[in-house]
Amino acid sequence: MAIFGNTSKNTYSPTNLTTLISKATEITGDLHFSGALEVEGRIFGNIYAQDDSSAEVRIRESGLVKGEIRAPLVVINGLVEGDVYSNNHIELAAKAKVLGDVYYNLIEMVMGSEVNGALRHTPSVDLSPKQLPSQKAQHKTHENLQASAQEKPQQDQAPQDYAHHNPYHSE
Fold it and tell me: Mean pLDDT throughout 104-110?
């Protein structure tokens, strides 16, 4: 049924929607989005783009993010306290300040932008949220460390008779 004689259907797609976090807004917690995200307010948590190759995050001059950002396209002109990951393009505008590492495929930096961390070129960046390693993986790492410690040459190991080699030990 058409409302007011309009017979065209509205088709909504996550790629043509924009979410605005206004200057008066503060969000605590992780934010998952698709389409475009404009941040003028404050986010205390991580920002994750959904599996959407056209997703973009724009941190405006008044915007603040305390957490990591993972999105295909990232434009920063505000403050980000955390690592930034992009598998497509990152633009750091004149008033951008990043306190963390930047993982990028392509990067554009305008005079005046700051990165207080490392710039790491990585052609393919994993944009999925961080997963904690399983206990099994941690156990394997521990086993590998023990095995490598046992492979050290005998000369690097401490003497077995501590009393004989300890100058502070009196008999």
Answer: 95
